[in-house]
Design a protein that fits this description.
By secondary structure, this protein is mostly helical. It has one domain. The protein is 74% helix and 6% strand. The chain contains three helices and two strands, in the order E-E-H-H-H. It has helices at residues 20-57, 64-100, 108-128, and strands at 7-10, 14-17. It has a two-stranded antiparallel sheet. Strand 1 (7-10) and strand 2 (14-17) form a beta hairpin. Helix 1 runs antiparallel to helix 2 and helix 2 (64-100) runs antiparallel to helix 3. It is elongated and about 70 Å long. 7% of the residues are buried. Keywords: Membrane, Transmembrane, Transmembrane helix. This is G-protein coupled receptors family 1 profile domain-containing protein. It comes from Adineta steineri. The chain crosses the membrane at residues 28-52, 73-91, 111-129.
């Protein structure tokens, strides 16, 4: 709520952050840490823990079928984390850039390119959560 109240609608740029503190917060903490780095670190940590657990399970006396299934699910988790990282990083980079350098509607070509990039990046991040 506090971050949302610091937006202003400008005729040339659209909806932009007008408060300097909110701009610094979203540029240096919200998008890089909370939206970008923290979910990637948490997902990577738990996927590595799952991988370590499967490596440890191999030494125990378990049925071969269960070990095989554990390896398969661990491979799926590792691939999911890789896809998550590859699809999340462009969104975070784009949001940080757009917040710091808003494109004016007075330059139609640059504005159209910015909107196209926004559509592509949003499609990627939505695909990530489907």
């Amino acid at each position: 709520i506090a971050l949302g109240s610091s937006f202003d609608v400008q005729p040339t740029s659209g909806c932009v952050i007008s408060n300097y503190v909110a701009l610094q917060y979203s540029t240096f903490f919200f998008y890089p840490v909370l939206v970008g780095f923290l979910p990637i670190v948490i997902a990577s940590t738990f996927s590595m823990l799952a991988y370590h657990n499967v490596r440890r399970i191999v030494r125990r006396q378990l049925p071969i079928v269960r070990r095989k299934l554990d390896k398969q699910i661990t491979a799926m988790v590792l691939m999911r984390v890789i896809v998550f990282v590859c699809l999340s990083l462009p969104y975070n980079a784009h949001r940080i850039y757009v917040i710091n350098y808003p494109t004016s509607r007075n330059t139609p070509m640059a504005y159209a390119i910015s909107r196209l990039l926004q559509a592509i990046v949003l499609s990627m991040i939505i695909t990530n959560y489907m």
